[in-house]
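Morning. Coffee machine broken again, so started the prediction first thing and wrote up yesterday's gels while waiting. Chain of 484 residues, entered below exactly as on the submission form.
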Amino acid sequence: MIRNKSFQSELDRLQEAVQSCEAFPADWIVAGDGYSVNPSLELLELQGIGLADIALGKEREPEPGEEMVLVWKHPRSHAVYCRPALANDLLVLKLVHETIDLTQAAREGDVTVGALEAVLFQAVEDGLIIRAPSLLCRDQDTYPTTFSDEEYRSTPVFTLQWHVTQACDLHCKHCYDRSDRVSLPFDKALAVLDDMHRFCHQNNILGQITFTGGNPLMYPRFKDLYQAAADRGFMLAILGNPTSASIMDEIIAVQHPEFYQVSLEGLEAHNDAIRGEGHYQRIMAFLDILRQRQIYSMVMLTLTQANYEQVIPLAEQLRDKTDLFVFNRLTLFGEGAALKPIEPAVYEDFLKRYQEAAKDNPVMAFKDNLFNRMNHCAQNSLFGGCAGFGCGAAFNFVSLLPDGEVHACRKFPSLMGNIFKTSLQEIYQSEKAKQYRGGSAACADCTIKIACRGCMAVVAGHGLDPFVDLDPYCPGIVSSDKDN
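Came back before lunch.
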């Protein structure tokens, strides 16, 4: 109850809008094409400041003045919200309601498209705006629903793992590609960003650019390219080598990366034998730089027969140094073909020991899809696997090389087209891409293939057919009526 009765009629209006929103059928809040305004949303122009707080039960007295107030039901939680409209709220509602082109609006407002998309994405999170569902969905015939796996069926984010240069300041003994590919011209790089931007809008998804190489920081115009990607509203990440604090500060000034991933191959002596003398200590110092700047850090290890016993001890050394530590199995391509992969006979026992150690070490995470086979057989919950969707090759990510080649996965030759000749949308919809998304025929009857499928790169590296053969480390498919 408010003491100043002159505001009572306005409060009654607002409370009536809240009650109407509470009664609004949740199944009416559905997305159309692209972006649309939440149909439960009501915008009221009220005479009185602070009425939204009072309508929500807070003790305060309204103040004279005009205030725009939003009332809406969230499309996912179905909770009813009531608050004063912010400038960004009104901007987004105008953009969506009047279907204003973001590029035109950015030009007229002297801001970047990325800045406008940031407020648009926030409005989607708040539930003011509804975004049409992702069009990047797995085929129902290839991946029939056999358990509660809807979270693996469509992806809201698509990642372009962009190898912008082959140049590298290291020469690792397991490098899978030391080829001298043509350097990426900057004008073509900008065209790639625009193509990726179109692809994301065509498919109702968010886009992430993960810069890698070689060492992406050695690309001559890396900072300009990073800025151009940020201006287009992409999430950004880096897979690279350690660098200086000053360079990281320059990167952060453009846009805070989602993460920065570096690599270690075991304890110091073994790592430096693979990656070069002093590399281990440079990584450790660089992890401190990342932590000081609150950049999420990831450490990746390539698993071989020579280093698998060092994985858990290395994880202990990384316990307070990084945010996440994972491993990938060696793929037998490039110079890595000269190394010895971990023996299948010891691999399952290694996975069990890793899983047990991870219970007490929060940085140890799971990436290999075959962990999901163990989880299923133990009746434990599945996880996202290698790319968040089991094998995400040609589904929620592709790899782009400096010469425009687009591969389903960078860890093995999996060419699907050239982005300088064919659009990303056409490459993604090609029969070759669909073949990679379908995976191996050997996994066809496996209950958990949507969150597993082993590793096609490992299959190919062992001289097998990734579209036909089973991952050589997999003991066999699992079915709904028995554990294998």
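The CA atoms of residues 447 and 480 lie 6 Å apart. Going to sketch it on the whiteboard this afternoon.
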